[in-house]
Amino acid sequence: MLTERSRLQSLLHRASEGLSKAKPYHLFEHLIANILVLLISFIVVVALYKLGEDVLSLLVSRAFDPLKHETFQTVFGGIMTLLIAMEFKHSILVVTKRQQNIIQVKTVILVSMLALARKFIILDIHALEAAKIASLALALVALGAVYWLMRERDAWNMEHGRQEEG
């Protein structure tokens, strides 16, 4: 009992020290990040409910055929939307846990790649011009190249004992 109480007091003391030493902008950033996490969590829950509702209505109407292209696009488009939102939430949670001060560029690039992958999944190739499909593919290749270059830079920095630049 005494050790639990002393641990709790120590934790509270460290937290109050951290708050007193924190700069106002860091407190502001932390508050905004927490609000964003709550909002995105709410969006994820609503989107999950809507996706479940759509799948259930497809099952009840016996129209659920995963081999049917339109059904596949609807279901997996919803799943990818949820994954993208959860990845955004995760990247913001990193800030709230003070593991990093800002959202990392690599995370933004990965989320962008997920969004493009979702676009390719829900894409109706018959209704879109070839040039638009090519431009989406080029954007995905460009994002992949930037991510690869950043990963190589990070590996080089680690190898040479340098800090990550962001």
UniProtKB/TrEMBL annotation:
Broad class of where this protein is predominantly found: membrane
Subcellular location: Cell membrane
Membrane topology: Multi-pass membrane protein
Regions that span the bilayer: 31-51, 71-88, 108-127, 133-150
Keywords from the UniProt entry: Cell membrane, Membrane, Transmembrane, Transmembrane helix
Recorded coiled-coil stretches: none
Protein name: Diguanylate cyclase
Species for this entry: Geotalea uraniireducens
